[in-house]
Amino acid sequence: MRLLFSSNKVSKDVNRQINFFMLSALFARCIFIYTILVIFFQQYGLSFAQILLVFALEGLVTFVFEIPTGILADVWGKKKTILAGMLLGIAGLASYIIHPSFAFFIIAEVLLAIGNACESGAHTAIIYSKFEKYNIQDEYRSYVTKKSRLMPIAASVTVLCASALFYLNSYLPFYLSIFFMLLSFALMCLVEDDQKVTGKRRTDSVDVAEWNITVFVRDSFLPLVKNKQLLTLSLCSAFLITMYANTAYLSQVYLLDLGLPLPVMGIFFFALSLMSSLSASYSEKLFKTFNMDRFLILFLLMCVSTAMLNFQLLLLVIPLYLVFAFINGVISQTIDSEIPALTDEGNRARVLSVVSFIQGFFALIFEPLLGLLIDHTGISTMYLILGLTSSFIVLLALAYRYIKRGVIIVTANP
Description:
By secondary structure, the protein is mainly α.
């Protein structure tokens, strides 16, 4: 267990609790379906528009349920909400293969979306609260770094096997994903929730105020409005996840079209996951102290690499995907480390749920548009448009920051 996380400032029991949580997250990462999901959908006759509509539906459901589940976590309990989300996720994975069809794929995505909504805010909140309770917040980045190194390794094993399993039997990746989700659920049951649940006595006048919807909305959104850095990081995370999700999903089909054999696909995704793991060390070195300018410059490099995926050369596209994965790993780990520290314990789960709510909103808006764009112009053109548009937005953000500080002097002709 010491190989995962160990702090000399707390007892063995606390270290054990943190490690149970990390192992649960590790097994939850062993999902074998993501690298073959688009191909699985195509096997059952779905078009690109239908595929991205299914993914966008997940964004819609997440959009609807993020804030209610964040409120539920703060009131009912973070651990209970996470466990409920895991059960829904297991049911969603099973729905893919009960009766493979467009309708059941939608059911699967709805169940997975509600499950993810239950876990998203509460998952980060419960572990950060444990660090906060024992006054070891300064070690949270170290925890995130360890987790960021281990998660891609777990993902690497799954993606290395996923293509071969799919080749043997298209249902095998789903069976194994369900098995590891059950292991994750069992380990999460061993994690203690340090939260003081606020919803036990709803008849009390104080608790009635706690349940007032106006108070909940205020406590959920106001921290983002007041804290510009929290809002900026939340918007960046939403944009990053939308970009990364579509790039990762579409890489399956894009690489096959460019001539990469299906059995080799697992090796490619293994290398992709290793790059994400390697990026964890560099994130901690680059962002010992958070710097927004450096953050945006890295974001810009990732956007440029996305645009360059338009060049339909296999030997160029593969390194570009690896660069994309490395920068994404650095940026996403930085966001994961910074956002929880900008929230308060009393409403942390709901504020983090608002962050996921924003992510779902981005997916809801952009994924159907990207699906239509691909059906009309192709994947390579979509990469070009997505990369150039996002590069322009990031450049505007950088220019605004430099102008505001007076680094760029704008003069008018007399």
